Amino acid sequence: LISLVKQKDTVIDIVEYQRYIFNIALVNIILMMLRMLKILDFQPRIALVTKTIEAAASDLFHFSILFTALHAGFSTCGMILFGIYVDDFTTFGNSVRTLFSILIGNSDVDSRLSVSEAATLWTGFYLVYLLISFFVLFNIFLAIIIDGYVNISSQTGEAPTIAQEFACMVNNFLRFLQNPRKYQSDEAIIKLLEMGLESGGK
Prior knowledge:
With 202 residues, this protein is mainly alpha-helical. It is 79% helix and 0% strand. The protein contains eight helices and no strands. Helix 2 packs across helix 6, helix 3 (57-82) crosses helix 4 and helix 3 (57-82) packs antiparallel against helix 6. The longest helix is centred in the first third of the chain and has 38 residues, at 2-39.
């Protein structure tokens, strides 16, 4: 019996250790994805994601403050008003998750509260929450992102695409193979022009 108890404790420790490793792996993968987005900034058209977020960072920061305050207020109201009817609002954390699930359309709490004693109160709360959080705040969030995207895309409108850059690389390589001694790369030509401008200025 003592041996079984020790084995049980060992298995529990292994499971906890494995869960810890999985959490570290998850964080590592997320960081690698973010790093990949940053590395891809060398190509203007691929960098639209990071550049758009950078352009809209200030507005997104202030919007997040407003959204957090309103969401916390609605969550507190939901916990006080409907915590005695459904488990989804028994705690503040559950209330936050439930309202966020409602916002993305992934909750069935409406069908349960609509047939409870607080059906009328819930209907009013539900409509006000959707009106403010979805129809107002969510659309403001989209407007901030779209505005940043429009500003960045207008700046990178003339930037070459990946296909064009790849075709240019292939073309330069073929020109080099045809006559390696006479071939002048774009960098060499630019350097010669700069040297000519410097000598002409003197």
